[in-house]
Amino acid sequence: MDEFALIEKLLVPAAGRRDDVVLGIGDDGAVLEPPAGEQLVVVADTLVDGVHFPRGFPAADIAYRALAVNLSDLAAMGATPYWATLALTIPQADETWLRPFTDTLRDTLGRYRIALVGGDTTRGPLTVTVQLIGGVPRGTALTRHGARSGDAIYVSGCTGDAAAGLQCLQRATATSPDEDTLIEKFRHPQPRLALGVALRGIASACIDISDGLLADLGHIAARSGCGAEIVDASVLLSPALRRECAPDVALSMALTGGDDYELCFTVPPSAQKLFAQISGEFPEVRLIGKMIAGSGVQVVGASEAWRTTQPGFRHF
Ligand code: ADP
Ligand code: MG
């Protein structure tokens, strides 16, 4: 299959439609009609074979992940996704690889009502770059820089599972149900788009957790010019992670493991009432600490005592 056949046969049918696409795939550029009164939010992330996913990772999972990591960035900005571009570099135009890739691309684009409006297709080592363009009502984008000392810090769910899941994948032995749960979190992170939208006008800062909770919260702290203090026992550990890992390993995964794509955000005291009105819709959200004067991220708590309350001990 040559480049043009690939585009016509596999990518155009996967592209999806939106009324605001004036001109999509097929010209030198796409022409798009942004919604009135909105600002556009643009994100891009590249996945490289053997770097961002293990070699031999299924084509369908690569397609999902390439969209999910970008959707997560839009979620962290409080944005709604509209349009995508795809720069696809593949060693050869192998239809048995491309089919599941474009099928999942189509399904995932459809699920989030995104139109694929252009891209580039080249030969080379497997590399997938997706760019997403979304929007927010003017002035409502969430950022990393608005947190202040005294703001409460929240996380949208369990962290550490994806990092543990990646380790399970890399061992490539038969897996237990708990290991399958962890692997699933690595394979299919769920971008927190509804939460991001709900946090407009409420969160003072927001980031998605791609590099690990401590590292990413550290970005909020640095950009906001303050420090952060989190309580170790308040960090939510999934039952699968607790069963699979020794308590100290599970905690360290939850604090430093990447790839979970949960949201970490801060809420100022002045917005707590508004936050209380929406938080019922997001039961997975947990309070984990507060922003403080100073700089950096501190973890406080009695992790020794907490450790001894956990049963079992299993090493990865
Ligand atoms: P050009 O030579 O002008 O850059 P191309 O021949 O590379 O155009 O691409 C033809 C059309 O197909 C363009 O509209 C381009 O955006 C689209 N396209 C190419 N590769 C992809 C891709 N991987 N995903 C989506 N659209 C693509
Ligand atoms: Mg051109």
Describe the structure.
This protein has 316 residues and is of the alpha+beta class. The chain is 37% helix and 24% strand. It is built from eleven helices and twelve strands. Strands 8-10-7-11-9-12 form a six-stranded mixed sheet. Strands 3-6-4-5 form a four-stranded mixed sheet, covered by helices on one side. The protein has a two-stranded antiparallel sheet with strand order 1-2. Strand 1 (21-23) and strand 2 (31-32) form a beta hairpin. Helix 1 packs parallel to helix 3 (95-111), helix 2 runs parallel beside helix 3 and helix 4 (161-171) crosses helix 5 (177-187). The longest helix has 18 residues, at 59-76. The protein is globular and about 60 Å long. The model is unreliable at 305-316 (pLDDT under 50). Adenosine-5'-diphosphate (ADP) binds at residues 7, 11, 25-28, 86, 88, 116, 118-121.
- SS field, number of helical segments: 11
Element-level helix/strand string:
HEEEHEHEEEHHHEHEHHEHEEH
- % residues in beta strands: 15-25%
What does the largest sheet look like? 6 strands, mixed
Radius of gyration: 21 Å
Number of strands: 12
CA-CA gap between termini: 43 Å
How much is the average pLDDT?
93
Q: Rough shape?
A: globular
Give the class from helix and strand content and strand pairing. alpha+beta
Question: In terms of per-residue confidence, which ranges show pLDDT below 50 for 5 or more consecutive residues?
Answer: 305-316
Q: Order of strands in the sheet with the most strands?
A: 8-10-7-11-9-12
Helix content: 25-40%
Bound small molecules, deduplicated: adenosine-5'-diphosphate, magnesium ion
